[in-house]
Amino acid sequence: MGRRAKRVKQTITVVVNGTVVPVILHPPTRPRRAWYAYWPGLVTSKSTGQTDFERAALAAENMVRNGGKIRTVTETLLSDEEFEAIQRAHYDRKQDPQAKASGLAVLS
């Protein structure tokens, strides 16, 4: 039985408005259960809230672009107009005229 692979800190690069920002991701350790991100300009590292590296890298990228704040669910919700535009595009692709009419009738 082999040893479990040791997680080490990794650096990713994020491009924000044409500026390259190196982000260092520190792996979870005993007191910290999530990956922590640090980039130049921060006083201390910030938690990404993710235990998986891929998700942590995505969260860190969003944090850099969002001024160091983690996005919340309310920020990622669609407005009614955006939702209806997506629904209209979906139902417009239907080939069956009855399905298209019933789908668009729901939106009206």
Would you mind describing this structure in some detail?
The protein has two domains: 10-74; 78-107, no CATH class. The chain is 34% helix and 19% strand. It has three helices and four strands; from the N terminus they run ββββααα. It has helices spanning 53-65, 80-92, 97-107; strands at 10-16, 19-26, 36-38, 46-47. The mean pLDDT is 85.
Task: Please supply descriptive tags for the structure shown above.
4-stranded antiparallel sheet, 3 helices, 4 strands, 19% strand
- What is the molecular shape? elongated
Would you tell me the structural class of the helices and strands? alpha+beta
Radius of gyration computed on alpha carbons: 21 Å
| Portion of residues within helices | 25-40%
Provide the number of structural domains: 2
Percent range for β-strand residues: 15-25%
Strand order of the largest sheet: 1-2-3-4
Largest sheet: 4 strands, antiparallel
Brief sketch in words of this structure:
By secondary structure, this protein is an alpha+beta fold. It contains 3 helices and 4 strands; from the N terminus they run ββββααα.
Q: What's the topology here?
A:
Blueprint lengths: L9 E7 L2 E8 L9 E3 L7 E2 L5 H13 L14 H13 L4 H11 L1
Antiparallel strand pairs: 1-2, 2-3, 3-4
